[in-house]
Each structure stands twice: as structure tokens, then as C-alpha cells.
Amino acid sequence: MSDISIEFGPIELIALVFIVGWPGLLIGAAIGLVVWRRRRAMGAAVGALLGLCAWAGIAFTRL
Q1: How large is the C-alpha radius of gyration of the chain?
Q2: What DSSP string describes 6-59?
Q3: d(C-alpha 53, C-alpha 19), whole Å
Q4: Which of 12, 21, 44, 45 could form a disulfide with 8 if both were Cys (CB 3.0 to 4.6 A apart)?
């Protein structure tokens, strides 16, 4: 038997999502910034969150 185990806690999983989904974060923020002109900061934040989730979701389903 081996003493090596691979366990991921919540912090590691969140970090993994950010590492994998950073292109979606940038693309979503840029699109949200352009599309939502009245509230650019809110648009960028919402776009970044949606882009991050979409990109990471697509990346993890390909594994």
C-alpha cells in the first residue's frame, strides 16, 4: 500500500477552477464591459463570472 493520497479541499478546487477558467474570465469581462454600458463594472463582473463558469465547465467536461 502507498501512503500517497490525492485529496482536494474546497480551496484547491476553487483555485483549480480559476487556473483552468482564466481565459473565460477575461473574455467574459470584456464582453460584459462592452455590452452593459450603463454599469460597466457590474457588466464586467457578471460577464467574468459567467465566462469563468462556462469556460471551466467546458474544460472539465472534456476531461
Answers
A1: 16
A2: ----HHHHHHHHHHHHHHHHHHHHHHHHHH--SSHHHHHHHHHHHHHHHHHHHH
A3: 12
A4: 12
> Would 3 be classed as within a structural domain?
no
**Mean pLDDT, rounded, for 16-35:** 92
Let me know how long the chain is.
63
What pLDDT sits at residue 17? 85
Q: Which amino acid is at 10?
A: P
How many structural domains compose the chain?
Answer: 1
Domain that holds residue 25: 20-61
Judge residue 25's burial from the number of C-beta atoms within 10 Å of its C-beta, 0-12 exposed, 13-18 middle, 19 or more buried: buried
